[in-house]
Write a sequence for this structure.
């Protein structure tokens, strides 16, 4: 349980951090809360030569309640997010998902930026961020760019973040669907990461679904939104029948992961069950 | 004043709750070095070459030892402590278990080199740079596969990987004939899967050769320091026993896995003399998973035959017991003398035959894990009982009551002689089951179960009524059965001139609370306050001898040794008192810490007598000064705790998720010294037994890798997986030890596992299945429901 | 190459030179010889290493010592004030919440954080709050009772 040797840098500004990244390139790794990276380092599954600790970059912290969105600084911890009043009001699934991550200790120090950068397929953030239609703000030598969450997750531990870029914030739109949203998880019993995590966000008008967003993590190597389910729900009254019809085909055509906790058929079934649970909570 | 029987708060707690416990890894010695092992990543591989040239030159590296070095030093390896012979009388196959392997790795984690450096980080860095070239061979992890022709051979000279075969009980032909002619036969084929002990403190050892005294000290996370010393000196390193001190400081849980003598202990001791500096080795959890001896791992076929009224007629059982790659210290005893002998259970079964094949595989060694053999026996019997009840349309509780052995106290009535080599000490089995039924509210439950039909939930109830053999064990008996050591216990009671008492016990405490319950016994028997008593254990230089703590033996055997010494102290004290009181010993009574001349108010206190013993100015003629006695207690028999465990599960049909809703345990562990501590032992045991049933179990892949060798994959039971337990007890004293105690350390684990699985089977009885493999995961249950 | 760190532990500031790769748990155990904080795993799972960092429960095996520089750590050794045990320490003693004691410091440190945010937890909340802490000895039964004892006691004196 001893990492390989590395040099440690602790920039206090974003610019400094990006300069360090440019200098050290792929020999370096960003460190935020450390709750994914340190476990990896101590088992020597990775051995970067430079660690750039961005936890001191003030501009990457804090949760801002704007007029049309809520901006979550990349360094915000799961615990901060779980307890944030604005998020609880405008996007409850975000706070709910945060409260289900790991344990008290992990939530105190693990951050949202670190989690989505790590892109563990069984992590909890991807589904809710997909369902929320979030935007990820990424900074590099050429300034900021904003990536739509649909374009962010690229596969197992792969994202749209370039080697010399840093995630600085995640922005959650204040929308009707986010206001009416939730997240449920069927946990792998040892790690308690998600075997199936399902986030649902549904906007209604006059009793009919105007927009439904249904996303999963844990099920496939890449988190995904299930277009079939969403389409089926749109225009319906969100009741038991509509939910049953919509969730009958959950994850159809998706390549599903399999392990000794949940083989493909069981995982697919559970994705349906959890989609049903989540949607029923909003019905 | 009576301490015995009351829930005295533990005296050892203070150091642990304030962070002052002293575990092996907490100890730092001057000049200490740190060891990191280079281990085989392959389950089965020839070692072509080991290159340490680069690693040796790295920062801080003091020395690197490989198998060549231990071979050159003539070290044969760690021995097995129990010999079981083949059915045909041949001695079991006992291939060497080298400290460092030089020819071939036989399981993932087999140690190939020990890298020693000034810091652990440096040792780790260098270990990474030791290059080993392997010729990877096909591996076998399953004992059934290992027995097949053409299976990979773990040891060249062990044909078909058979370490030994063994049988016990009535002649097989007789048993088979009874089964063939029976009204009903219940047959089960099942796997009692391998579980990993997972004491939360990883194993740790520090070897220290003190050149000033030519003396070795080994600090190690062990349940039995003296046994380690004996094995280390007499079998592994050939060291003079009086020049070796073994200390088991505070130990963070054992559950069996810290009974055994491990290669790392011998390595740090031997190495410390080679480099003339202390060496510390502490396992990382990933190492624990592949090097701590594991538990269970039986594949069994069992048959139980009944007459038309439901009376048991016969039982046969055939088990393949996985030994792993080497025979660990007590491994051969577990499936045989600790398992086969328990197959009488609580029942009057007139004919029993059990047959065992002990098999080598390319896995970590298997040995005693909490309960050791007895949980496997209980699982076998109790799964059969519930299955039989279901098949015959009988109530599982009634079927048991009907077949129970009649009560016997072991004093007026003889102990019960079983078909499988034991004589039970005392027993009264009906009341534990009846009390359990009362607590669970059996009729109400069956009503609730009915009411749940047609909802999304299934309810199930499972029973387990068990017996165990504890307080191991009469030395002559175990000697005849192949033990290479005695199983007595020693205790010294040292009275100081001021009347304070130090007790040196050979029973090590690693959570059991000996420092409290032993002190309760001493204080009561001597009539002095508990504060005046200190229990010392775990250091071979302080304690004369000891066989350690396992098999629920500490109080029954170790406690009895203490009582013997107290009797000697009081006998001599009486002589001194008689002298001081100018009375005859026969006229004295001892109570509440003083000797009184019967019928008078003339008395002398324990403190005065103690002082006189050490300041013998006015003293009986011919009597030695001092007040200090040692005893060795060799038990007359095993002790036989028993009990009834009842589990209620709720299954969610849609997901297959199983929830343990209630768990009721009524145990009879004989007399109870400290109810709080006994309850705690039961709770912990239950969690482990329930854990095996619903979440734990080693999973290997084709190549012999342990797939779930970390806590990210191996499911440990957590607080929110378990209910609060409902427990009660009956008391049937042990007739053959002075405290009347039977032992409580393993009961929880032994009884609970089949109760959970039986409950799941009860819940799933509409689905036409005969068995469900442990651990009963949600996926398995869902497959059954939707299969 | 070693780097300077300055960490306040149980109220006392320590300035040391450490390798950046040193985990906080090793800093506490080896640099400061405060061995009440234990190591039970290598995957950040067991919670035996739990301490408080700036008042929040942390698995100290999951953070580098350099990350904690400038911050304040409380370990189990810092929980009692003089001879007065913390209510949780008292609770574990009174309710037999420990056997081998190895998980105990981590349990107490985790529970302290739990009670800070939820002073009057239900049994279910306590059990859920302990999901990052393993105990192999007690079956958790008495750990739950110990935490309830402390919660009651802290409520009374609040
Ligand atoms: C015991 C345990 C249980 C857990 N359980 C869960 C769970 O149930 N569900 C779940 O979702 N997660 C779980 N996690 C993971 C946890 O959520 C981590 O905190 C999170 O994944 C990483 O956040 P961090 O700040 O700690 O990232 P770090 O470990 O600091 O970094 C993680 C990765 O992201 C990169 N990175 C960090 N910040 C940035 C940035 N701003 N820009 C670009 N790259 C960056 C790093 O280089 C590194 O590769 C668990 C972790 C542990 C230890
Ligand atoms: S040692 Fe930190 S969680 Fe196990
Ligand atoms: S008391 Fe031993 S692990 Fe909890």
């Amino acid at each position: 349980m001893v990492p390989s040797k590395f040099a440690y840098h602790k920039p206090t500004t974003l610019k400094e951090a990006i300069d360090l990244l440019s200098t050290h390139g792929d020999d370096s790794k960003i460190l935020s809360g450390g709750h994914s990276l340190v476990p990896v380092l101590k088992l020597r599954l990775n051995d970067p030569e430079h660690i750039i600790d961005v936890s001191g970059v003030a501009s990457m912290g804090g949760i801002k309640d704007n007029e049309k969105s809520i901006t979550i600084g990349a360094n915000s911890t799961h615990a901060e997010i779980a307890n944030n009043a604005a998020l609880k009001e405008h996007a409850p699934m975000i706070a709910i998902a945060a409260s289900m991550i790991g344990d008290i200790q992990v939530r105190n120090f693990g951050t949202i930026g670190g989690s989505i950068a790590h892109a563990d397929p069984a992590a909890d953030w991807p589904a809710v961020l997909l369902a929320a239609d979030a935007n990820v703000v990424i900074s590099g030598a050429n300034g900021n760019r904003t990536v739509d969450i649909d374009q962010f997750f690229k596969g197992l531990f792969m994202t749209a973040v370039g080697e010399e870029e840093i995630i600085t914030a995640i922005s959650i739109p204040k929308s009707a669907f986010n206001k009416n949203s939730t997240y449920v998880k069927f946990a792998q019993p040892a790690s308690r990461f998600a075997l199936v995590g399902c986030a649902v966000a549904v906007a209604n008008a006059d009793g009919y679904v105007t927009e439904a967003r249904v996303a999963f993590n844990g099920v496939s190597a890449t988190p995904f939104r299930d277009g079939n389910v969403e389409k089926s729900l749109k225009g319906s009254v969100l009741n038991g029948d509509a939910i049953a019809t919509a969730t009958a085909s959950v994850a159809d055509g998706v390549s599903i992961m399999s392990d000794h906790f949940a083989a493909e058929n069981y995982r697919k079934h559970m994705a349906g069950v959890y989609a049903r649970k989540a949607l029923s909570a909003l019905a | 004043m009576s301490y015995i029987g009351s829930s005295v708060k533990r005296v050892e707690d203070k150091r642990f709750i304030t962070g002052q416990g002293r575990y092996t890894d907490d100890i730092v010695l001057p000049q200490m070095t740190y060891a990191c092992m280079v281990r085989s990543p392959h389950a089965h591989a020839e070692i072509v070459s080991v290159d340490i040239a680069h690693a040796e030159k790295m920062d801080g590296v003091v020395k690197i030892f490989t198998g060549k070095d231990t071979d050159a030093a003539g070290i044969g390896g760690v021995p097995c402590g129990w010999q079981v012979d083949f059915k045909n009388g041949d001695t079991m196959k006992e291939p060497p278990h080298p400290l460092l392997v030089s020819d071939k790795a036989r399981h993932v984690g087999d140690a190939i080199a020990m890298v020693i450096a000034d810091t652990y980080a440096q040792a780790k860095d260098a270990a990474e740079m030791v290059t080993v070239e392997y010729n990877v061979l096909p591996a076998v992890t399953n004992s059934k596969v290992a027995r097949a022709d053409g299976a990979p051979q773990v040891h060249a000279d062990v044909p078909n990987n058979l370490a030994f075969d063994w049988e016990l009980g009535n002649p097989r032909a007789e048993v088979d004939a009874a089964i063939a002619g029976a009204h009903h036969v219940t047959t089960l084929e099942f796997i009692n899967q391998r579980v990993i002990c997972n004491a939360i403190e990883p194993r740790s050892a520090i070897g220290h050769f003190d050149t000033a005294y030519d003396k070795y000290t080994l600090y190690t996370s062990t349940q039995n320091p003296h046994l380690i010393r004996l094995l280390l000196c007499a079998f592994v390193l050939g060291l003079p026993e009086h020049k070796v001190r073994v200390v088991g400081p505070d130990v963070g849980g054992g559950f069996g896995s810290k009974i055994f003598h491990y290669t790392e202990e011998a390595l740090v001791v031997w190495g410390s003399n080679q480099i003339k500096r202390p060496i510390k080795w502490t396992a990382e959890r990933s190492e624990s998973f592949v090097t701590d001896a594991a538990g269970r791992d039986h594949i069994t076929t069992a048959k139980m035959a009944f007459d038309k009224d439901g009376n048991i007629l016969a039982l046969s059982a055939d088990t393949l017991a996985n030994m792993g790659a080497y025979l660990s210290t007590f491994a051969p005893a577990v499936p045989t003398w600790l398992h086969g002998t328990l197959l009488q259970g609580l029942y009057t079964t007139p004919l029993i035959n059990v047959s065992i094949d002990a098999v080598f595989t390319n896995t970590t060694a298997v040995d005693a894990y909490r309960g050791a053999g007895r949980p496997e026996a209980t699982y076998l019997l109790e799964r059969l009982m519930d299955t039989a009840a279901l098949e015959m349309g009988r109530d599982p509780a009634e079927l048991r009551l009907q077949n129970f052995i009649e009560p016997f106290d072991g004093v007026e009535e003889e102990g019960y002689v079983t078909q499988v080599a034991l004589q039970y000490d005392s027993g009264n089995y009906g009341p534990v089951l009846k009390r359990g039924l009362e607590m669970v509210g059996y009729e109400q439950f069956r009503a609730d179960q009915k009411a749940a039909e047609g909802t999304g939930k299934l309810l199930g109830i499972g029973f387990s009524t068990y017996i165990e053999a504890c307080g191991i064990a009469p030395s002559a008996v175990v000697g005849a059965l192949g033990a290479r050591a005695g199983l007595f216990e020693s205790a010294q009671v040292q009275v100081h001139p001021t009347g304070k008492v130090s007790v040196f016990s050979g029973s090590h405490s690693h959570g059991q609370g000996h420092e409290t319950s032993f002190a309760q016994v001493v204080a009561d028997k001597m009539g002095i306050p508990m504060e005046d008593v200190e229990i010392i254990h775990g250091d071979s230089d302080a304690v004369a001898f000891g066989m350690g703590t396992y098999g629920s033996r500490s109080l029954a055997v170790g406690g009895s040794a203490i009582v013997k010494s107290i009797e000697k102290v009081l006998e001599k004290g009486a002589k001194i008192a008689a002298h001081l009181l100018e009375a005859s010993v026969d006229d004295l009574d001892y109570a509440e810490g003083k000797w009184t001349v019967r019928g008078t108010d003339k008395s002398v206190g324990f403190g005065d007598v103690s002082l006189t013993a050490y300041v013998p100015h006015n003293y009986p003629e011919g009597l030695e000064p001092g007040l200090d006695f040692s005893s060795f207690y060799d038990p007359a028999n095993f002790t036989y705790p028993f009990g009834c465990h009842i589990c209620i599960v709720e299954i969610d049909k849609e997901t297959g998720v199983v929830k343990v809703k209630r768990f009721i345990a009524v145990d009879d562990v004989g007399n109870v010294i400290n109810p709080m501590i006994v309850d705690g032992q039961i709770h912990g045991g239950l969690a482990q037994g329930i854990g095996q049933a619903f979440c734990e179990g080693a999973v290997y892949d084709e190549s012999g890798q342990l797939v779930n060798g970390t806590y990210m994959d191996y499911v440990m039971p957590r607080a929110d997986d378990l209910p609060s337990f409902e427990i009660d007890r009956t008391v049937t004293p042990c007739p053959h030890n002075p405290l009347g105690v039977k032992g409580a350390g393993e009961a929880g684990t032994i009884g609970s596992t089949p109760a959970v699985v039986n409950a799941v089977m009860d819940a799933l009885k509409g689905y036409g299945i005969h068995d469900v493999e442990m651990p009963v995961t949600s996926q398995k249950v869902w497959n059954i429901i939707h299969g | 190459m070693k780097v300077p760190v300055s960490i306040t532990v149980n109220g006392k500031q320590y300035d040391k030179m450490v390798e950046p790769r040193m985990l906080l748990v090793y800093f506490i155990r080896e640099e400061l010889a405060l061995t009440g904080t234990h190591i039970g795993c290598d995957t950040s799972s067991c919670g035996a290493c739990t301490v408080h960092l700036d008042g929040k429960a942390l698995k100290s095996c999951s953070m580098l010592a350099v990350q904690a520089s400038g911050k304040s750590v409380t370990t189990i050794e810092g929980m009692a004030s003089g001879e007065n045990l913390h209510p949780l320490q008292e609770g574990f003693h009174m309710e037999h919440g420990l056997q081998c004691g190895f998980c105990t410091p981590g349990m107490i440190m985790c529970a302290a954080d739990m009670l800070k945010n939820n002073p009057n937890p239900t049994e279910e909340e306590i059990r859920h709050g302990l999901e990052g802490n393993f105990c192999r000895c007690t079956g958790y039964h008495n750990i739950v009772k110990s935490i309830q004892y402390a919660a009651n006691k802290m409520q009374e004196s609040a």
In short: Chain C touches chain B through 57 residues (CB under 8 Å).
